[in-house]
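STRUCTURE:
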């Protein structure tokens, strides 16, 4: 298939690209949903002069508040804290270094929440601030507490406004963009759908000015084969571009949640179930959120090379990884870190949380857990990666 470029369009465009025998997507899921996660990017909230656009934020809040007052629970994952903090700090563009980004986020988050509080309050809707880090999805106790807090807020009629806790997050534990955060939040709260809003109205199979067609429906990765998806937006204030929205929509669809990618201007139409944007149909079932994090967000610290027998056991029989099946250890890592498991030819087959550090493992290779328990003592008779902490890729 010829490689194509997915670009943006403000309006209109050529007819949709959709196979004639494909069942049309059921967008009524959005019109009748019980719980929806909506994500908005910085580019959609930023004015031409920089900072947050009052008009754009108010328009979005109006659409979401109306949907909330109709009975649908809404969680808003909102970027924009760093953008909101630029002007008060005398910065003219998004800083590159983490420390200055954290400073801007610290100043901007309060300003952003004040504007949301005012805009939603005009509709009698209360909002709350919820700041999360990747660590909140890695540990069961923390993501359980996060779910309880969000669920209770929704039960009380509140619209939680979620953002990554940029002020304290480090390079090692960051989501990288709020699109992935939104996909995990949708999974965490058991949402019916995820709506990803930006300054892009849909996915296209080429430049709209050249007669490209809107991709109205994606049933799986095969529908996007041969299409090159852009990484940057026109505003320059975001961090991911369209590629991260497609990744987030794919994560959601693969874990049992419908997803829609469209523009912020289309928010009201999208929530009403109208035919806008690109719809990602469910393509998989719900998974434990820790495994979702492991598959898509975890920072891999090392590599375990498996023999053919271990590859078959892990990949085909979905069993735990034993030391007897490991032939080599690469990288430096500690117990509890994420590692990649590769076949003899280097193909990655799985990721998992390892029970031993890179200094301990070499003496264990090729030996059974019984042998290790006898030779090295209690604690060395455990598997290297338990099946519950392992995900195939």
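SEQUENCE:
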């Amino acid at each position: 298939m010829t490689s194509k470029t997915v670009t943006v369009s403000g309006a209109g465009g050529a007819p949709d690209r959709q196979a004639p025998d494909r069942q049309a997507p059921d967008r009524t899921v959005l019109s009748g949903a019980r719980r929806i996660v909506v994500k908005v990017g910085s580019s959609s909230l930023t004015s031409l002069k920089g900072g947050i656009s009052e008009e754009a934020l108010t328009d979005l809040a109006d659409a979401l508040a109306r949907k909330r007052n109709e009975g649908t629970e809404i969680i808003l994952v909102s970027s924009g804290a760093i953008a909101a903090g630029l002007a008060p700090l005398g910065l003219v563009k998004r800083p590159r270094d983490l420390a200055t980004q954290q400073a801007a986020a610290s100043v901007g988050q309060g300003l952003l929440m004040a504007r949301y509080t005012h805009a939603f309050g005009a509709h009698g809707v209360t909002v709350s601030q919820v700041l999360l880090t990747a660590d909140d999805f890695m540990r069961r106790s923390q993501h359980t507490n996060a779910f309880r807090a969000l669920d209770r807020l929704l039960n009380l009629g509140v619209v939680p406004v979620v953002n990554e806790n940029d002020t304290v997050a480090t390079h090692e534990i960051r989501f990288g963009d709020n699109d992935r955060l939104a996909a995990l939040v949708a999974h965490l709260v058991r949402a019916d759908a995820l709506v990803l809003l930006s300054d892009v109205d849909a996915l296209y199979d080429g430049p709209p000015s050249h007669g490209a067609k809107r991709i109205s429906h994606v049933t799986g990765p095969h529908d996007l084969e041969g299409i090159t998806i852009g990484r940057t937006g026109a505003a320059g204030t975001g961090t991911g571009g369209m590629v991260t929205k497609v990744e987030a929509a794919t994560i959601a669809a693969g874990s049992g949640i419908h997803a829609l990618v469209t523009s912020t201007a289309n928010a009201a139409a999208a929530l009403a179930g109208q035919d806008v944007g690109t719809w990602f149909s469910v393509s998989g079932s719900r998974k434990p959120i820790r495994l979702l994090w492991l598959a898509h967000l975890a920072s891999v610290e090392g590599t375990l090379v498996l023999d053919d027998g271990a590859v078959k056991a892990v990949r085909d029989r979905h069993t735990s990884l034993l030391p007897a099946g490991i032939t080599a250890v690469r990288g430096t890592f500690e117990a509890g870190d994420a590692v990649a498991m590769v076949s003899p030819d280097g193909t990655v087959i799985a990721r998992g949380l390892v029970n031993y550090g890179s200094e301990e493992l070499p003496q264990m290779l090729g030996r059974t857990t019984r042998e290790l328990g006898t030779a090295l003592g209690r604690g060395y008779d455990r598997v290297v990666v338990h099946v519950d902490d392992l995900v195939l890729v």
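REMARK: The chain has two domains: 4-292, 298-392.
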